[in-house]
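Hi V.,

You were right to ask for the full record rather than a summary. Here it is.
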Amino acid sequence: MKRKVNSEKAFHAFAFAVLLLLAVICILPVGLVVIASFTDEHTLLAQGYRFLPEKYSLAAYQYLWKQSAMMLRAYGVSIFVTAAGTCVSVILSMMFAYPLSRKDFKYRNLFSFLVFFTMLFSGGIVPSYMMWSSFFHIKDSILALIIPTYLMSAFHILLIRNYYTNSIPNELVEAARIDGASELLIFGRIMLPLSVPVIATVGLFTGLAYWNDWINGLYYINDPKLYSIQNLLIRLMNNIQYLNSGAAAGAISGGISTLPSTSVRMAIAVVGVIPVVIAYPFLQKYLIRGTVMGAVKG
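Predicted structure:
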């Protein structure tokens, strides 16, 4: 018995050491990005990225601060798109997954195949652009940042379906049906309250996708007032690169060519990831449980 206890302690110590090493490996690059964003531009160009640079500077954040009006508006667009898109996506995915989890649903296998088929094949970028812009006319509207690509995910639907099948006893559904509950009442009173872990998991995945999205803005948005934070930051970075190019620097005077392009890239990465870092700890406790339970084959 004592040998078994010692072996378990040794395994736990080894597992802790491995996880600690992996955590350090994941954290170090993020720390390097943060430090680089506070590093002087000339120091970065001369010495490269270092954890202990010789000279620090706030020039990158000062430049972003000058664009604060545009950034606040872009933050507002991103927050609205992320919140609205995530809520609608989670609701639609859960409502789609619910009948797929019911063994008495006549077309269960057909719809499951159609969902799985979309994970393997897609129409491509050009047909999607033509459909959304020419038939649905959502170009240069806030819907262009919400509907295409991320509104429904086949992976999320299957994840939720498996969670329903493996984590919620079918006897609860049958008891509710005997009591005369409708399908909508069963979904709202039984399935939703018992699905908090998978809701948080799918919500986190979807929210990250919406927050980091810049493809939809690149394809469908030309109005600067509808730029998300990712699209705005990319355009700021492109503008800096152009102004620092030889042609622009030769045509424009006043020292514009000294804009901190390298450190601004790092500052842009920091600004973009801050909301995710703030939100993640509140959802972390649900993430592992929802992913594990939903990934088990039903």
